[in-house]
Structure formats: structure tokens, C-alpha cells
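Sequence in, structure out.
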Amino acid sequence: MSTLDIVGLCGSLRSGSINRAALNLAGSLMPDSVRMEVVEWREVPPFDADLLAHGLPAPVQALRDRIRRADALLIATPEYNFSIPGVFKNVIDWVSRGEDQPFANKPVAILSATPGPLGGARVQYDLRRVMLFVNAMVLVKPEIFIGGAGGKFDAEGNCTDETTRKFVGDQMKSFEKWIGSVKRMA
């Protein structure tokens, strides 16, 4: 079996983001046949149709190309004001432009971590709707909502909660199977 190439995207730009820690945790718990590269998107500009009229900006094109090459996409995102962080939604809006957008038929898994008790349930609801619209193939279960996340990761971003480690590890095993299922459907 060849190694599966996963692009990891964090919905937060903050280097100390709990969602970046959750994304890194997921990467460390992936099966041996899966490798993840966390791709940065800080240079993607605000969406502007006037910019688009002149072609895709280089950082957008690079991100689109990297997502297109990947076997799948793993997203870890915080919840801002009950929804998707604006800057992250901006990235999705840019990447999804054009008939050749790379989300179509791409296996996607989502997880979220928040200090509150719901663990990002509302952001996942909205993000799943957006991913559905761009024809991504989102893993339905297991869902991962890491509530009270501040008490589950240490200052260095390491997960200290065994239950969280198990849930995330289980999702990564299911994600590997989901990627295979989606590939067989293509």
C-alpha cells in the first residue's frame, strides 16, 4: 500500500492555537500508511473579485495546487462567533473559485477544539455545509469536538488527555478507511 498524502489546514493563524495542537495530535496518531503536511495559508489575501479578474494570486494558486495533489484534507478549526473564522472562510472562498476547484471529490475530515463545552459543534455544522457545497467528501463519523480543550493540552501543545487521544486516533483510522472508500468510488 502506498503512503497517503494528507494536507492539514488549521483554521487559526495563531502559532499557539489549540486547534494547531489538535491538528498536530491527529498527525501523530495517523496510521503508518498516512502522512500529513500542515500547509500554511497566511499569505492568502482577502477575497476580491477585482484581484480574481487578473488571475489567482500566487499564494492561492499554490494552495490550490497542493490540495489538488493531496489524497485528502484534514481541517482543525476553532469556532468564532458560532461559526467559521472569517479569515479561514476567506481561504475556502479563494480555493473554491473556478470549475477546477480542488475540493471536489476530495476526502475531508474535520475536528475542532474550543475552551467551551461544545468543542466547536457550531463551526463544524457550518463548515460541513460549505464543504458539501464544494462537493468535498466529508467523513461523517466519528465526529471530534474537543470541549474544555485548554485543560487537555499542555503549554507545549501536547495532549495530556487519554480520552481525547483515543477519540482523535479513532477518527484518523476511520479517515484512512474513508479515503480508500472515496478512491474506490471515483
